[in-house]
Amino acid sequence: MKRKVSILSLGCSKNLVDSERLARRFDDAGLEASFVETVPADGSFLIINTCGFIGDAKEESVNTLLEAIAAKGDGSLSGVYAMGCLTERYRAELSEEMPELDGLYGKFDWGGVVEAICGQESSTRPWSRELSTLPHYAYLKISEGCNRFCAFCAIPLITGRHHSRPVSEILAEVKELAAAGTREFNVIAQDLSSYGRDLSADGSSQLAELIDEMAQIDGVEMIRLHYAYPSEFPYEILPVMARREQVCKYLDIALQHIDDTVLSNMRRHIDSNATRELLARIRREVPGIHIRTTMMVGFPGEDEAAFERLLEFVKEQRFERLGAFAYCEEEGTYGARHLQDNIPADVKQARLDRLMELQQDIAFEIAEEKIGRTLKVIIDEFDGEQYVGRTEYDSPEVDCNVYIPSQIPLEIGKVYSVKIDAAEGFDLLGHVES
């Protein structure tokens, strides 16, 4: 019987890609690797891919490690290994506090766990992986790290400077996945706007070139862009989005705020006027685009007037997708070292609630505006009663669903033209046009 390896991936989709690559390396080494969502009790070796981004995520990672160590202690696991962002940043502390761990690996040396368990190095190609998602969609990580050093963000402290993967390597990965049946590619990076600047002689972005070539690969039907940065935005990508039907009219670009004082305190390298000009140009050059953004409330310097400006900005822009969170000081960041986190927690929460209530009303109105339209929808599953899919405007896990009655059989992973009949909250109801 093969020895079993379980992989529990915490945190973001960028972490998930690393977990999928790890699974492939174990499979190629002759071990049976599987993805789990909770600590198993099947005698397997457990690798926990940790998150170290914010306080809640760090707490979840630590608690999961402690639970796994306890399971190992009672014989339910053969070994426990940690990797990822938390271990990259706190390796020495975790080694001291959790000596029961069988191995600690960071963001970039996690391949060593294969050798530790199997006794041999992996010869797997760097990009090859076993998908943990539904087989028709995948996350495609095109770079790692970040050079922006926003005042609130610990990512550069964990992952280091921005470095891009070569275009040729990414295209080889896409071709391999598409040949195996993957149709939807959710392109991810900590800073999509900087992709390729470290590869080109003149420091120019290579994002447009990459996406244009991806769109021409057989089998690729949806490409969705996540985590662009507003400063130094690569405008060359907009004509590609407008011209290539395979590129979804969807852009995830975190703006964080609109008040100039807050933006300056955040070290976002952009002001309110430039932000509005950016959004206007994106919408002008890519008609019908859906913009997903993230806002932060309660950052040092956000007085009531600044927060009201943020609310007015959200009303004005009517973002199709918006998430938000309250500022939480992260050790080692510029904000933690130089700014005073003096806004009370209850004020932060009240502002967060007001912002999300406003956005809910906007999102419901935008959903209703789709009634009567025919949209491109990829089918994710049949839930026993109806088919569940997503439009080109909806990323997996974070966005909305389309529900389609089961009068006619549909193929999971296939893209259909669906006429929208109704809206229920954030989600849509529709039928496949014959």
Annotate the secondary structure layout.
Elements: E1 4-9, H1 13-28, E2 32-36, E3 45-50, H2 55-73, E4 79-84, H3 85-97, E5 103-104, H4 112-118, E6 137-141, E7 143-144, H5 155-159, E8 163-164, H6 167-179, E9 184-188, H7 207-215, E10 222-228, H8 237-243, E11 247-253, H9 260-266, H10 272-285, E12 290-297, H11 304-317, E13 321-326, H12 334-338, H13 345-368, E14 374-382, E15 386-391, E16 402-405, E17 415-424, E18 427-432
Parallel strand pairs: 1-2, 1-3, 3-4, 4-5, 6-9, 9-10, 10-11, 11-12, 12-13, 16-18
Antiparallel strand pairs: 7-8, 14-15, 14-17, 15-16, 17-18
Largest sheet: 6 strands, parallel
Distance between the ends: 50 Å
Assess the beta-strand content as a share of residues. Answer: 15-25%
Label the structural class.
alpha/beta
Describe this structure in words.
- The chain is of the alpha/beta class and 434 residues long.
- The protein contains 13 helices and 18 strands.
- It has helices at 13-28, 55-73, 85-97, 112-118, 155-159, 167-179, 207-215, 237-243, 260-266, 272-285, 304-317, 334-338, 345-368, and strands at residues 4-9, 32-36, 45-50, 79-84, 103-104, 137-141, 143-144, 163-164, 184-188, 222-228, 247-253, 290-297, 321-326, 374-382, 386-391, 402-405, 415-424, 427-432.
- Helix 3 links the parallel strand 4 (79-84) and strand 5.
- The radius of gyration is 22 Å and the shape is globular.
- It starts with a strand and ends with a strand.
